[in-house]
Amino acid sequence: MGGLTYLLVRIFNQDQWILNQHPGLKDFANNWLEHYESGDRRSAVEYLQQHRQSYRIETQILDASGTPLDLGVSPRVISPATRRSAHRSTWRTITQEVTGNNEHDYLFVYRIARSELSHVGFRPWGALLIAFLVLTLMSILVTLSITRPLNRLRHAVHDLGQTSYQKDSLKRLAKRGDELGVLAADFNRMGQRLQGLIESQRQLLRDVSHELRSPLARLQIALALAERGSPAEQAKLWPRLHLECQRLDGLIDEILTLARLDQVQTEKQSIDIKQLLDKLKEDASLLAPEQVITIRQAHSYTYQGWPSLLQRALDNLLRNALRFNPAGQPIKITVEQTADALLIQIQDHGPGVSEEYLPQLGNSFFRVPGQQQQGYGLGLAIAKRAVEQHSGQLQFSNHSAGGFIASVILPRN
Fold first, then answer.
1. I need a surface site. Which of 53, 194, 354, 383 has the fewest CB within 10 A?
2. Torsion region of 113: left, alpha or beta (phi above 0 gives left; psi -120 to 50 gives alpha)
3. CA gap 133, 143 in Å, rounded
4. Spatial distance between the Cα atoms of 219 and 251, rounded to a whole number of angstroms
5. What's the pTM value of the predicted model, to 2 decimals?
6. Side-chain half-sphere exposure of 152, counting CA atoms within 13 A
7. Among residues 319, 318, 320, which one has the least CA distance to residue 332?
8. Which ranges in 103-230 belong to alpha helices (H)?
9. Which residue, among 104, 97, 96, 52, has the nearest Cα to 75 in the 3D structure?
10. Distant-in-sequence, close-in-space partners of 362: CB < 8 Å, separation ≥ 6
């Protein structure tokens, strides 16, 4: 664009262009004035005649009053018709104002044969055509640099809609250092997140369908036996049917709770950690009065979050500890404030978990093989999801002296 603008300016000021570039006009006025103002009029006339013969340039010089200088050189006589034809086809007239050393102004009028203009170099219109071609090529390259990434983003959107998005589909585009690269990186993260949510929902549906089959099958068997049995046998089956209905209702409640955790929560509130833990301890003493729960908290801490979610997470972790902790051994709850996080640990003295199964804890419907199963494998999954809603982490480990530790790490806010 800069080159094109420069050429356009030159095109609309061709006289100045010719005066600066033509070898017969570039320094002619100054050189002639040196001869003329030095008083050597004969030398000035000879220089003027030589210039006309060398470059086919007819020159007329006027003083400040507009009167031609008498140099004793007569211009070529040309008929009016020839002059009009020549002016249109073979000649070009250019004027130049020059101030001499004696502060007198002169006007040089040049009539140049157009064939002599080839000395100037590229003709302006040819240069303009080249500039347009270069500009067109650059425009195509710039357009492709924008449209190609947009097409790749469009295909990625289509794949995302078809749930066939590949995490590396925009990896190369995301390496660009411009705004499209930033957009591709953000879109890639969004696509991976959505694909993860879709896959987790699919896995949840598969797990739910699998887990619901067992209580439904037991209910169907019990109902079939009740239909065929006597009144006395039916009376024995009613408690069994009631128990299976309770288990099914509890499983469905856990599944719905897990699904609600992905929904957008309300505005965060200030949570008194000590008050929350005291309430959980009171509820646990009613559920398992034989268990001893100790809370060690050096200071009173508050946290900005969602009270119901954090309470549900800690309650599930505490219930899990009550399930495996032997009577007579205390369950320890420790609260500490680090430089960048609030740490809440719940430690029991149970059998712990094999190291190979620790990474799988918190997955939906996962239950450690070999342990007595009393739940549905959703308690730790709900706790993990609730902690992640607070941008925190839930970590599991075994204590060196025996027992199991669940650590809730919440970032400072």
1. 53
2. beta
3. 15
4. 14
5. 0.51
6. 20
7. 318
8. 124-161, 179-228
9. 52
10. 380, 381, 383, 384, 394, 396
